[in-house]
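REQUEST ID: PR-0412
SUBMITTED BY: lab tech R.K.
PRIORITY: routine
TASK: structure prediction, single protein chain
INPUT:
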Amino acid sequence: MDHRRIRRGQTLKDIQNNWEDPSSLTLLTNDLGSVQQYVGVLVRQTPHDVHRLVELPSSDIDISLWIYTHLRRILQDFNVPWLTRLQEVCTSSGGCNAMRIGDDILLCREHNDGRPCTAQEYIFHAMDAAADTLGSIGAFHSKLTSIPRHCTRLFPGVCKQIARVFSHLYLHHNEMFASCEADTSLYARFKCLVEANSLLPEDALPI
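STATUS: complete
OUTPUT:
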């Protein structure tokens, strides 16, 4: 028996303690719970090896489930340090009284009166909306092995919201963007996932 595989019922601590070499990490099952654990361990151990992170490890895993798991993990990993740093630099007093991407101002869908959010408000609303969309798709038990086809059509919309946030940070808070990216490679992971699966047109990404 290979004791290094992720097995049902293992805690994250057990998995992390059992795996020193991420190159030998394998999946025992191809359901949502196992895929989430697998991605979590890879992100923790090799966060900068983005091509390995997003490469489908087995043809037995449904690609839609793989993309879904990665999008949820990207939203989770955006919280620290990205959103925490964002609150320090992306302020109305600092010029971000509206959500700008270059010269364009984006209006928030949370409001029906046409008024712009501050950039910080827009970003929080956008990330919450993306998380809610994925949550509605993934209201499944952990043994799920595929995402319904009609739900996969929501992936590009989620990616568009995330890309807009990265674009604002890259164009208007480049020092913060560079610092967080050096620590996490989160944008590189997102870009690699998007490009590998043709989730957005090329010009939707900032770099």
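NOTES: Residues 63-89 form the longest helix (27 residues).
REVIEWED BY: pending
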